[in-house]
Amino acid sequence: MMNITVIGCGETGATITSLLLSKYNDLTLNVLDPDNNISGKILDLEHAATSSKSVIKWNNYKSASDSNYVFFTAGTRGSVGEDRSKKAKENKQLIESIFNQFTPKTNALIITISNPTEPMSYWINEHLNRKNIVVSTGTSLDTFRLQLIIAKHLNKSINNVNTMVIGEHGNNMTPLYSQTSISGDLIIDLVSEKQLNEFSLELRNSATQIRKTESATKYGVSQCAVHIFENFISPNKAKMAVSVSSEKINQLTTKNIHVSWPCKIGNHSIEVIQNIKMNEHENDQLKKAVEAINRTTNQ
What we know:
Layout: E1 2-7, H1 11-23, E2 27-32, H2 39-51, E3 55-58, H3 61-66, E4 69-72, H4 88-99, E5 109-112, H5 117-127, E6 133-136, H6 140-153, E7 161-162, E8 165-166, E9 174-175, E10 181-182, E11 185-186, H7 193-204, H8 206-210, H9 219-233, E12 238-245, E13 258-266, E14 269-272, H10 280-297
Parallel strand pairs: 1-2, 1-4, 2-3, 4-5, 5-6
Antiparallel strand pairs: 7-10, 8-9, 10-11, 12-13, 13-14
């Protein structure tokens, strides 16, 4: 029986919990959230868990300490259109208050979803003295969003669009158009620079567009978090952009931060892919992303 803890049972935490229940049987799913007003939500999740022979626990810190996998969704949500780094100090304080109540198992996988995602994963990693495998969803969500944007605009199947976004999950995200291909053809040979810039603008505005009618973005990022988990426990390795220590990335000189970067995830390991090809514009954009992450991380 897999023991998993989900920290925070807002819209994202509840969505992740529901996704896990729909995909796996015989889970122990422990939800950490001090809000007494979610008792109905917990009961609803217990009902859902019954169909998969799973168990829901609520605020069980012993179970949290025994978990091999932790999803960190706790945090203060920003207003519509607000820079993701604006809530950094408040969300950083949550890390200490939560992890002072329990200590995760050594080498447990911790996936953080809360913004700002790259600094949050770094702060958690440091608070836990680097004894765990800590990543964030980072630009994995931006990668899926860009894949969809390109497929829609060019009337192509998403299965034929191969792209990647790295750097910062925020205004300084870095789409790697020089390496983006559609059915094997480079996108830079198919569309104009103006159209690529339009894709980037639509990508940066994705969350704002969603929040015109929704209180939060939750389905996409929840699926990304679960996808990271699925890849991690799989015997096969898959490529995803997640936040990792900059010290592991040969192309970066800035240390003591986490940056979203292409990694091979699988067989209970996360391996950084080195020597990513970029053009001059992408290198410049990545530098801006690293600088922005550094400012937020060390404020």
